Amino acid sequence: MNKLAMRRAWFQVHKWIGLILAILIIPLSLSGAALVWHDALDRIVDPTRYAVSGTTVLEPDVYVAAAMTRLKHGERIAQLTMPEDGGPVVVAAAAAGSAPKRPGPPQRTMVYLDPPTARVLEVSASSGGLVRFLHVLHGSLQLPGVGRSIVGWIGVAMMISCFTGLWLWWPTIGKWTRGLRYRRHRNADTNLHHLFGFWIALPLFVLSLTGAWISFPQFFGKITGEASRPRGGPDRGAMMRAKPLAKPGQPLAVAIGKARSLAGGAPLRSVTWPTDLSADWTVTFVRGDTPVGVKIADDTGGATAAPARPQTGVARWMRRIHDGTDMGALWQVIIFLGGILPAVLAVTGVIMWWRARGWKAELAAKRAVRA
Fold first, then answer.
1. Could you please report the per-residue DSSP string of 90-133?
2. Could you tell me the residue ranges of all domains in the chain?
3. At what angle do helices 217-224 and 314-323 cross, to 10 degrees?
4. What is the distance between the alpha carbons of residues 194 and 170, in angstroms, rounded to a whole number?
C-alpha cells in the first residue's frame, strides 16, 4: 500500500469514527470538562447545602440525631462524613426495603447539616443534582450495566482517532511546520478542525487512554501485573448495596472512642456503619493527607487497623491523570480544553462531511450531464 492509499484509508477510519461517535463524544467530553472543578461547580449550582455558619464541629451523635428527624420510615444511617474545606456534615442513609438488583451504586438519602448547629441544610437523593448527573453521564452515559463498557470502547476509538488525525494533519508537501498555519483551507470550520485537532491530539490521547483504563481495570491490571480484587468474598457492588444494621451492638460514640486509640489523635473524617455483609464499623481519620482507617468489631468491640488503600500504582495514577486530582492547575486546564475541543472537533467534522457530500453530489450531476 503506497502513501496515498494509506492516507485515504486512515481518512476513512478517522471520518467514520467521528461521524458514528459524534453524538456520544459531545456529551461525554463536555461533561468531563465540567467535572474538572466538580466541587466548585456543586457549590455554584446548589449553594443551599454549603450555606454553613462556621467550622466548629459537634459530637457525631448530634448530627445523627438531627439527620434521623428528616429520614423516612425504615431508612437506616449508612455513613457520616465530617466537613472538609468549610463544607457541611453529610449523613447518608440507605433506602428502606430490599436493595435493588440493578447495576450501579444504590440510592441513598443525603442529609446536609450545618457543622456548628446541626441544622439541616438540605435533604436530597444521592442521584440528584447536576454534578451527580454529570458524573454518571461521563462514567456510563446514564446506562446502568453496559454504559461503562461503552465509554471504555469510545476511549479506544478516540485513541485511534487521535493517531489518524495526526497522520492526516501532517502536510504532504514541505516541512511539517506548514501544518501549523491557520489558513490551510478556505473554510473556517476546516481550519479550526486542523488547528484544534493538532494541539489537543496528545492530551486527548492520554485522556482517552486513562478513560479506557478506568473502564476496563481488570484487562489493564493484567498487563501491569497489579493484583485484582481477591475472590471468595462479596464484590464491591454487593458491599455497596449491603443493608446497614438497624441496631448495631456498639453505640456510635463507643465505636469512635475505641477507634481513636489507634488513630493517634488524628481528626475524624468519616464513619461507616456495620452492615449485613460486614459487621464492622469503619472509622476513618486523616493524618495530614493520609487516611487512617480503623475497624471496630460490632459484636466484641475489638479495634484493628484497617488495611490502607494503596496510594500508588498505575491504576491510581491513571485516575488522577484523567480527573486532574492533585495534578496542578495547568493539567486541569488542559483536561478542561480536552473536554471542550473534542466537541468542537465533532461539530466541525460533521460540517466538513456534510459540505463534502454536497460538492460530491454536484460533481456527480455535472458528470452525468456531460455523459
1. EEEEEPSSSPP-SSSPPPEEEEEE-TTT--EEEEEETT-SHHHH
2. 3-37+137-226+340-370, 53-128, 231-312
3. 130
4. 10
**Distance in angstroms (rounded) separating the CA atoms of residues 45 and 52:** 16
Q: Dump pLDDT digits (tens) for 106-130.
A: 789 999 999 999 999 999 998 888 9
Q: Find the helix or strand (DSSP H, E) in which 31 lies.
A: helix 3-34
User: Is the confidence at residue 282, as pLDDT, over 90?
Assistant: yes
pLDDT at position 195 over 80: yes
Entry pTM? 0.82
CATH number (3.90.550, 1.10.3470, 3.10.450, 3.30.70) of 231-312 reads: 3.10.450
Give the whole-angstrom CA distance, residue 185 versus residue 183.
Answer: 5
Q: What are phi and psi of 49, to 5 degrees?
A: -70, -15
pLDDT at site 297:
93
Q: Rounded to an integer, what distance in angstroms lies between the CA atom of residue 68 and that of residue 35?
A: 31
Tell whether the model's pLDDT for residue 33 goes beyond 80. yes
What is the C-alpha to C-alpha distance for residues 317 and 210, in angstroms, rounded to an integer?
Answer: 9
- The closest alpha carbon to 209, from 195, 196, 224, belongs to 224
